[in-house]
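It is worth pausing here to work through a concrete case rather than discussing structure prediction in the abstract. The textbook approach is simple: state the sequence, then state the predicted structure, then interpret. We follow exactly that order.
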Amino acid sequence: MTTSQKCPCHSGESYAQCCQPVIEGTKAPEQAVELMRARYTAYTQKNVDFIRDTLWPPLQKTLNELEVRDWANETHWLTLDVMDKRNGGENDNEGLVLFKAKFLARGQMFEHKELSLFRKRKGQWYYVEPLPLPNGV
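Step two, the predicted structure:
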C-alpha cells in the first residue's frame, strides 16, 4: 500500500494521514475511534503484532496469535462504518465505539457489528473487549 492511497479504514484520508502513523508507532491515537480504525486497518494488512500490542495489556498473554493470524489470512475486509462513539476523547479514560464492517471469508460476505470498549493506560488507548450490542442495532 502506498502512503497516498486512501486509508483502508474508509475515513476518506490518505493512509499516510490516517492509520499509518498509528500502526507504525510514530503517533499515538488521541481518541479511541482512531485506535479502532487503526486496528481495522491492521486486520486488512494481517498485522497481528499491532492487533496484539493494542489489546488491553492484561489480555495480551491470552491472545491466541496463531488463531488470529489464521482468521486474518482467510478474511478480506471491504468496508468500515463507524456508527456511534461515546467518550474516548483525549481527556477520557474509557470510550465506546459502535461500528459495522463487511468482509469476505470462504467465498461469502459477512457483516460484523460490534460495540467496542477501549481504555486508556499511561496515556495509551487499548482495545478491551466487545460489549453487548444496544437494542435495535
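Step three, interpretation. The domain at 20-131 is CATH 3.10.450.50 (Nuclear Transport Factor 2; Chain: A,). The CA atoms of residues 28 and 124 lie 7 Å apart.
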